[in-house]
């Protein structure tokens, strides 16, 4: 009988949630949902030296923001809780001791100074504690002598690793080190905790970054030592910065929180991360999470080095703003950014009118308050080119103000013929009228359509700003 497909994401709470974690979480989530299976979150917090307070909450918030809801994990409960490795130390110790008893592991008593000397002389640990008689090792351990438990790699021999994306690789056991499984402080290393937890939580498919591929023979040996069924392994390509280097703090922005603060939509980031390893059968680049799940096939996952390009992400974000989100959705998304900029949007109806005009002109939510500032306040700066236009067209603006005051309303059907007639009567090209007017009421020369903008801003605001602009050049 086949087991239910179960995947997991197992991040370490050592800092801001990494975009690479989001990328791997996405593929774990999609594969679980594709198969009607389980998606688990497990916090691997055994590296206490690098533990960062609050990082776990950030990780969980990231998953929630991205819409990657998990079936089991912190704050949800379930049959395998708790899901923090620091709360499972007795469990790992039990299994490490079991490996010692079965001959698959041994106790090693070298001090840090001795280990450093061995590393310098031998290039790595040489397995010398293998030769300690078991009775002596147990006596020393009972006496309280500090020690670690190491994996006893069978030698000679080979270990076969099957990766579902890359094929089968056979490793010479002579090249596999006797890694530490349980440290002297009672905390497990990644290797032991990872394998024990994956087995106990029923993980059938281990989907992780390719940097863990070199550790997989160690994990395969541990499964063999315990007599447990192997999961399937999929090692996803690492995200790269433009230029080919691994995406890191030195080569780009790695924090998901950064992209969120810059006004990247979760749908867009999720879609973009999908493209880092997967392509749709029809080649389209914009697709929903549900569409990805429906179309997902490991044959469509590529292992080449994907480049995480900020400009491409921003382009995709703009596509979502213009073509995917409804005005109602977009209005809700921009409100926090308007609040952060200290801008009041009057009403939801007004905000949606502004968004309808501005939607083609911004690509991130963070851009919107600055690019649309003149819709929400008179407190905006004039571009240098705008001031020059106002100066050149001052006389036109004074006359135009009188015309605008006389109009019964500011609907385009009213303002457009009136302004065109105004220009025609004076023998002016329409641009000679529109550019000074645009500059006066927005402080900019690049804006949405003038007639639509006049209607949204309203008569009182337009006339007030004309007065302000004229006073500016008279001062």
Walkthrough of the structure:
With 475 residues, the protein is mainly alpha-helical. It is built from 20 helices and nine strands. Helix 1 links the parallel strand 1 (6-9) and strand 2 (38-41). Helix 9 (266-275) crosses helix 11 (310-324), helix 16 (394-406) packs antiparallel against helix 20 and helix 18 crosses helix 20 (459-474). The termini are far apart. The mean pLDDT is 94.
Which architecture name of the largest domain does CATH use? 3-Layer(aba) Sandwich
Which class of secondary structure composition applies to the elements? mainly alpha
Sequence of strands across the biggest β-sheet: 3-4-7
Q: Give helix % range.
A: 40-55%
What are the secondary-structure elements, in order, as H or E? EHEHHEHHEEEEHEHEHHHHHHHHHHHHH
Find the CATH topology of the largest domain. Answer: Rossmann fold
The total tally of domains equals 4
Q: How many beta-strand elements?
A: 9
Distance between the first and last residues' Cα:
86 Å
The CATH C-level class name of the largest domain: Alpha Beta
Query: How large is the share of residues in beta strands?
Result: 5-15%
Say which CATH homologous superfamily of the largest domain is assigned: HUPs
Note the overall shape: elongated
Largest sheet: 3 strands, antiparallel
Query: If you average the pLDDT, what whole number results?
Result: 94
- Low-pLDDT runs: none
Helix count, per DSSP?
20
Rg estimate, integer Å: 32 Å
